[in-house]
Amino acid sequence: MDLRQFLMCLSLCTAFALSKPTEKKDRVHHEPQLSDKVHNDAQNFDYDHDAFLGAEEAKTFDQLTPEESKERLGKIVSKIDGDKDGFVTVDELKDWIKFAQKRWIYEDVERQWKGHDLNEDGLVSWEEYKNATYGYVLDDPDPDDGFNYKQMMVRDERRFKMADKDGDLIATKEEFTAFLHPEEYDYMKDIVVQETMEDIDKNADGFIDLEEYIGRQTYQGGDC
C-alpha cells in the first residue's frame, strides 16, 4: 500500500486500539497519552504520526529528509511485521499501537524515577517520594494556592502502600509503575475505584447521585 493508504489504515487502527469506556478518574499525575495533538484526520495525520512512532521519535522524523524518513520507517515496519512475512496486517498495526501506549507509560516512569530515587539505590521508598513531591509544602501546611496537599499526600500514601506488594514501603520499578499508573494493574483496581468514588462523591455520603455524576461529566467535557 502507498503512504497515504498506510496512514489511513493507521488512523483506523489507532481509534480501534484506544476505544474503551470513558474513565472518570482524577490522578495526581496528568500526562497526555500517545500525542498531545488534535486527532483530526481531515486536516492532517499528526496525531497518528505520534501514535505510530511515539512523540519523541516523531520529532526526530520531522528533521529527516524524505529519503531518510522512508529508510527509518522501513526499519520500524520490520519491527511491526511480527511474523516476518513481508506484510503488515491490521492486527499487527493494532498490537504496535498498543505497544506505543505502553511505551509512553514506561517512559513516564523513567522520567519520574530519576526525580524520586534520591539515593540512587534502584528503589523508591515512600519517604523519598514524599520528600521529593511534598517536601516543599511540609513546612507550610497551608499554602496559598488552594490545594489541599495534606489530603493529596494521604491519598498518595494509601496508593503507594497498595502498590507495594511486600509492604516494606520501598517500591521496585514495577511497583512504582503500579503506583503511578494503577489503572494498568489488576491488583490496583480497588484503589482506582475508591479514588474515583472520592473524586465524584462530593458530599461524601458513599453514593453518587445524578447531580454529582452530571457535574463530573460537565467538568470532563470542559477539559477537552
UniProtKB/TrEMBL annotation:
Q: Does the keyword Secreted apply?
A: yes
Location of this chain's protein in the cell: Endoplasmic reticulum membrane; Golgi apparatus; Melanosome; Sarcoplasmic reticulum lumen
| Keyword line | Calcium, Endoplasmic reticulum, Glycoprotein, Golgi apparatus, Membrane, Metal-binding, Repeat, Sarcoplasmic reticulum, Secreted, Signal
Source domain of life is Eukaryota
Signal peptide span: 1-19
Q: What is its main location?
A: endoplasmic reticulum
- What cellular-component terms does GO give this entry? endoplasmic reticulum membrane; extracellular region; Golgi apparatus; melanosome; sarcoplasmic reticulum lumen
Spell out the protein name for this chain. Answer: Calumenin
Origin species: Callithrix jacchus
